[in-house]
């Protein structure tokens, strides 16, 4: 059973309020493969509480002068290749076919 922190139920507007990041910046982090929201059938992005923590961490690293490429590379080292591949494929499938978990 997954934790409530893993469930993707929060919209981008609420994420923006919680983190202080603009919706545009959140979408940019998604484009740079730093965050992987799920999509509803209507295309709405859904995030988890883990994603909130991740976005704050990303923003802090960016403020410290890190580039998105470096952040992504650090995360790739943390995640197994298989897990990263599954996350990316899940995000791509969600975007392409409006699938949900």
From TrEMBL:
Keyword Transcription in the entry? The reply is yes
Q: HTH merR-type domain spans which residues?
A: 9-77
According to the UniProt entry, its GO molecular function terms are:
DNA binding; DNA-binding transcription factor activity
Q: Does the keyword Zinc apply?
A: no
InterPro entries found in the cross-reference section: DNA-bd_dom_put_sf (IPR009061), MerR-type_HTH_dom (IPR000551), MerR_fam (IPR047057)
Keywords on this record?
Answer: DNA-binding, Repressor, Transcription, Transcription regulation
| Listed name of the protein | Transcriptional regulator
Identify the domain of life: Bacteria
